[in-house]
Amino acid sequence: MTKNYRIDFQPLGRRGECATGESVQECSLKAGVGMTNICGGKGKCRSCRLRVLKGCVSEPTSSERDFFSAQELEAGWRLGCQVYPLADCSVYVPPESMTTPQRTQVEGLEIRVQPDPPVLCYKVDLVAPDLSDLTADADRLLQGLLQKHGVACRKVDEAVLRSLSMDLRDSEWQCHVGVRSDEVISLRSLPGPNLGLAIDLGTTKIAGYLVDLENGKRLSSKGMMNPQISFGEDVITRIGEALRSLEKAAEIQKTVVEALNRLTRELCDEAGCVPEQILEAEVGCNTAMHHLLLGLPVKQLITAPYVPAASFAIELKTRDLGLNIAPGAYIHMLPNVAGFVGGDHVAMLLASEAFDRKELVLALDIGTNTEVSLINEGRIASVSCASGPAFEGYQIKYGMRAARGAIERVRINGNSVECATIDEAAPVGICGSGVLDAVAQMYLAGILDRGGRMIERHPRVRNVGGDRQFILCPDERPGEEGLVGITQKDIRQLQLAKAAIRAGIQVLLEASGRSGDEIEEVIIAGAFGTYIDVQSAVTAGMLPKLPLSRFRQVGNAAGMGAQMALISSAVRKEAENLALRIRYIELAGSPQFSKIFVRACYLGDYEEGKG
Amino acid sequence: MTKNYRIDFQPLGRRGECATGESVQECSLKAGVGMTNICGGKGKCRSCRLRVLKGCVSEPTSSERDFFSAQELEAGWRLGCQVYPLADCSVYVPPESMTTPQRTQVEGLEIRVQPDPPVLCYKVDLVAPDLSDLTADADRLLQGLLQKHGVACRKVDEAVLRSLSMDLRDSEWQCHVGVRSDEVISLRSLPGPNLGLAIDLGTTKIAGYLVDLENGKRLSSKGMMNPQISFGEDVITRIGEALRSLEKAAEIQKTVVEALNRLTRELCDEAGCVPEQILEAEVGCNTAMHHLLLGLPVKQLITAPYVPAASFAIELKTRDLGLNIAPGAYIHMLPNVAGFVGGDHVAMLLASEAFDRKELVLALDIGTNTEVSLINEGRIASVSCASGPAFEGYQIKYGMRAARGAIERVRINGNSVECATIDEAAPVGICGSGVLDAVAQMYLAGILDRGGRMIERHPRVRNVGGDRQFILCPDERPGEEGLVGITQKDIRQLQLAKAAIRAGIQVLLEASGRSGDEIEEVIIAGAFGTYIDVQSAVTAGMLPKLPLSRFRQVGNAAGMGAQMALISSAVRKEAENLALRIRYIELAGSPQFSKIFVRACYLGDYEEGKG
Q1: Torsion sign, CA atoms A424, A426, A427, A428
Q2: A483 confidence band (pLDDT: 50, 70, 90)
């Protein structure tokens, strides 16, 4: 008897069906997950390494026992072609085992800030000590800095001190000194760019930027998935995992630190330099990612009234986190606003310049969690909306991340349905912007009513296993349900997600005594926000009904803000002031919220729904 | 055939002869080394643990194999009653295996400084967060400090941050906060003394003091041997060991850190508190001990022109050194002056108040290395004298540390020789002050000539094995050479040691254009300096010939200076200024030094020797 198991491929977010006797590798091919498969599934090339996160699978084969250590097998590491599911499973496919690169957002606004970096470099020529001048090595260096450059330092980083005597002698007393505030944090014999690392650390994706601190020039940029996703797709699940034990929390922290180290090496490889040249790191992220990275307590983050352990900007030595850049370098964490509004939102407000606008401006960073700020005559109020992972392709039957083969655009003209996929590849699933498009188009075509109910009069609507479904790409084979579709359940998921955002906006408007049509500009940041069709977002009722010219999609503004803060102490100061200025409104504390949320679930304009 | 091996007992400094078939434990008893021996040498009580540092010994017995791990055996750990020497050996007897406590110097001048501690404590009552006030926990704490006490902090120590959310909730938002500069370094729910730890870290001995930071009251004090002695008796040997490999250097560092942790626990036990209550540590030590503790490079310390890696006052988190006090606490290292004049000398100058005297003042800290400063109308010049370990009882035939049974005073009246021992115990050896006394008395009695040659006309002078010897305590058995004596070689060792000091003083005097009889006061610090008979030191020509009323023995002034710097930021500042003010004279660079040294070797007044 054959049985079908459901396999959940992480971090891609794609799900597949696996029949008895089918390997995970075979299943991945059918599901459109591009796993490498050099030896043709013989367990020889070992290119299809993966980690079983959940679910029962076959025992390791001798090939796997040869390849993996007992510890690795214990941790769930297997070869995709050698492992057979015996139940529904969840597997993590590391980037090196995948052929399909993920589309992550690293581009965005351009840096428009005068460099004023926290670390400055100076060339110092010293005279070697002799009997007439017995000044200690480090003191000699500090004197040189003061005499030649007028720079008064009082401290030398311990790691720098530990190699300073040898370094100075090796370089014949000529060196390039990195100074941060009143501390010497690096010493090297050769000149070279003074590099900084900016990180936009998202729940799902990480974007990294290597920047020249002196001129603000970006030398390389790169995106990757956040491998912490193996501990939970959303922050609440991840925090729950961290609370299970100190070891678990340490493991979650180590996972992201290792990812950042990998990303840093890749950024350096691309720019032709080494991580030890990086003298400063800047991180913008949501409060949960912030706390999990720093090892701060998280229990109070998920317990009412949901407060951060710390909001002010934190600086510490990167080595204390295990981040491998220059040994004396610091990491600066942008300040948080509240338990669910973090430094990434502050960075986004900075980069988009939304924060000092005089008109009524709405700024959103759409993701698994969506932060929304309303800037009203210089006053800023923010909310955090639990939009959930539907926009990332989760909890959608054919959902997947924005990768090759994902449907990202849908147009319905009568009976004709047109779908565009990423890289124009054969469709293998649908990503967030595709779902939003589909829902808007189905609503416009009358296939969905205002309540989101699918009406059966369109030929593409079918009943499959008790669930109504709209077929986007029909399977050519007769009798099949269709390769990719949107189910009634998917529509409900999207309604909840968009309602969370729309309700958040509404609470902000009502708290400010303003109405949606007064908004002069809507700034949309984030990867998802970059790729959505704004008209569809308005049609679906996720965003207020306004002329399209009032919307501005700014890409990864959080990443840009992190880069600005990396190269400018003035921007850091501004970020701290900004974080203090923002008035956070806890939606759970808003008495009108439930009523507003229910109304926001309707498709179409929120204002119409009021009538 | 029986054969005798020579056994060197560390850190006591006593040497014994061990016949074939005799255990190290048996030898220790004969040599007057008080090793515990509860089971009577059956290898059962395991109280006679020791470590073989050098020399060939018998294989471990089954009893030892049961007791020690393979790693411990590898490191030389053995039971004294089970190990039989097969060659000359050197063994380290840890404090817990000894019955005879060491006399170490912890007392000295009284603290006469207004407390102005680097860490201040504040009581803060906070209001728990609710929906109307969602301020983050750490930010709330900082606001509380500012509002209630006007204290503006910008940082919270990472370790404090990691437990802060839980600590605040557990204490119901009432807490006692330790603030250092602009950083919160501790948080606790209960009030209690704010403790500080001051350490005088010597090459041979360590003195520790537990002090109440708020009122300067000393709660406990304790001395111990520096276990680094197993890596070499003097700093040069120890640095040589550290240069062998990074692992060795790390081992040397770990050895002293573990000793400091042990000392800290004992200090706390005595005062009825725990190390986690200690909020600040202050260390004064010579430059080599400073570098070995901090893991700084030492090669340049023993390579001309002998400069420190760093001289300025260094502060770092104690946790980064492995020192277990409050997790957020700092350790402050007093500034060094030169490669062989360290923060302990600065501390001594501060505590003795020698540094701001207007008269001509000489200040010495006598030890394995002797630092001497001449204060001349407010100007300070210093030298470092390689006095060697003779004053500690090393390189003296019957030499031992200042412990029970050591001869510390000698008086010769014609044919009568009187010896006083520590604790009035039966004599087992002679310590530094005893050797100095014996030499002075022998010189006065005409048994030694000015050149230090022993004249054979005294009945106590005998020739033993080619070396002339003066018997201090004759053995009652006929034909024996005497239980304790002074050999011609010992006299030479003492002459070299005292000449080093006298020559150093002379170089200082000549560099200042002053003569010895102009000195208004001679301040003598250090354990050895406390116990010497000043008249003997003058007679032997170690110190200038001056009225005895001009000498002041101040005990462990370095330890006192460390305590002053611990409780007062003003004293720290003064220490930094002082270290910069001192003009260090490298004796190796003084053209007259060899000539002066040769002349200083003569017994009697240096000035007479000039004629």
Answers
A1: negative
A2: confident
Please identify, among A469, A493, A517, the residue that sits at the C-terminal boundary of a domain.
A493
Q: What is the pTM of this model?
A: 0.83
Q: In what order do the strands lie in the sheet with B14-19?
A: B14-19, B4-10, B89-92, B49-54, B77-79
State the pLDDT at residue A71: 82
Residue owning tokens 């590391």: A94
Residue B207 belongs to some domain of the structure = yes
Both A127 and A76 in one domain: the answer is no
Residue A435 counted as domain residue: yes
- Give pLDDT tens digits for A82-141: 999 999 999 888 766 776 554 555 555 566 789 999 999 999 999 999 988 999 999 999
Nearby residues of A147 by Cβ (< 8 Å), 6 or more positions away: none
Query: Nearest Cβ partner of A310 from B136, B295, B589?
Result: B136
Confidence of residue A287 (pLDDT cuts 50, 70, 90): very high
Note the Cα A263 to chain centre separation in Å. Answer: 13
Contact (CB<8Å) A310/B138: yes
Domain match, B206 and B177 both: no
Q: Are B496 and B388 in contact (CB under 8 A)?
A: yes
A195 Cα to chain B: minimum distance (Å): 25
Beta carbons of B344 and B200 less than 8 angstroms apart: yes
Q: What are phi and psi of A472, to 5 degrees?
A: -90, -45
Among A144, A164, A188, which residue terminates a domain?
Answer: A188
The distance of A6 to chain B (nearest Cα, Å) reads: 40
Task: Tell me how close the Cα of B258 comes to any Cα of chain A, in angstroms.
Answer: 20
Q: Are residues B202 and B219 in the same domain?
A: yes
The pLDDT-based confidence of B94 (bands split at 50, 70, 90) is confident
Q: The tokens of B521 are what?
A: 């006061």
Residue identified by tokens 């004969």 is B30
Whole-angstrom distance, CA of residue B250 vs CA of residue B263: 20
Using DSSP bridges, classify how beta strands A467-473 and A484-487 pair: parallel, antiparallel or unpaired. Answer: antiparallel
Q: What's the rounded Cα separation, in Å, for the pair A470 and A478?
A: 17
Token duo for residue B257: 């850190």
pLDDT at A611 over 50: no
From the list A539, A559, A533, the residue with the least C-alpha distance to A604 is A539
We report the CATH number of the domain holding residue A11 as: 3.10.20.30
Interval B401-420: pLDDT, tens: 888 888 999 999 888 899 98
Amino acid at A427: P
Subunit contact B296:A162, Cβ cutoff 8 A: yes
Q: Do B139 and A320 touch (CB under 8 A)?
A: no
- CA B112 from chain center: how many Å? 23
Contact yes or no for B139 and A314 at CB 8 A:
no
Distances B525 to A502, B234, B313, B373, B538 between C-alpha atoms, Å? 78, 19, 22, 12, 16
- DSSP label at A359? S
Cβ atoms A605, A450 nearer than 8 A = no
Range of the domain at B165: 119-188
- Which of B136, B309, B586 is closest, CB to CB, to A137? B309
B611 falls within a domain: no
pLDDT at B95: 67
Look over chain A and give the mean of its residue pLDDT values, rounded to a whole number.
90
Domains identified in chain A, total number: 3
